[in-house]
Write a structure and sequence with these properties.
Number of strands: 6
Largest sheet: 4 strands, parallel
Order of helices and strands: EHEHEEHHHEE
Strand order of the largest sheet: 5-2-1-6
Helix content: 25-40%
Structural class: alpha/beta
Strand content: 15-25%
Distance between the termini: 27 Å
CATH class of the domain at 15-65 and 97-145: Alpha Beta
Length: 146
């Protein structure tokens, strides 16, 4: 028995999948989307290569969180200037850019480093039901099977 390790030349078969985020819990959705982006749902998964698929998340504005996170959760970033530590609440972020809420949740579940930065580029999150990726013919993804 030998362990199969994918090569960079074997990675031409990437699929596009669509996920509807309506009434999905943010963390549970993000963990399943991260598995698809990394390629862990495929038998040829290789940890050091990008073997995953592209994911389009629709209705990111209709996502929900459990508990009191809607009032309590905050996002922080530093602008680089003195006194540049900024804090944004979950409610404000969801109203301003719901795709970014999903993107940050998924990004924090991906590996850190160069591979993680490459993988997060395969996530496309949109506010409504429309997306500009119809030419790629994305297939609907059943999250219950992942």
């Amino acid at each position: 028995m030998k362990t199969y390790m994918a090569k960079a030349s074997d990675l031409a078969n990437r699929e596009w999948v669509v996920v509807d985020a309506t009434n999905q819990v943010l963390g549970r959705l993000a963990s399943k989307v991260a598995r698809v982006i990394m390629g862990k749902h495929k038998p040829g998964y290789t940890p050091h290569l990008d073997t995953g698929d592209f994911v389009v998340v629709l209705n990111a504005d209709k996502i929900r969180v459990s508990g009191r996170k809607a009032e309590v959760k905050t996002y922080h970033h530093y602008t680089g200037w003195r006194s540049g530590y900024k804090t944004v609440t979950y409610a404000d972020m969801l109203e301003r850019d719901p795709g970014r809420v999903v993107r940050l949740a998924v990004q924090r579940m991906l590996p850190k480093g160069i591979l993680g930065k490459q993988l997060i580029g395969k996530l496309k999150a949109y506010k409504g039901n429309e997306h500009p990726h119809a030419a790629q013919q994305p297939k609907p993804l059943d999250l219950a099977k992942i």
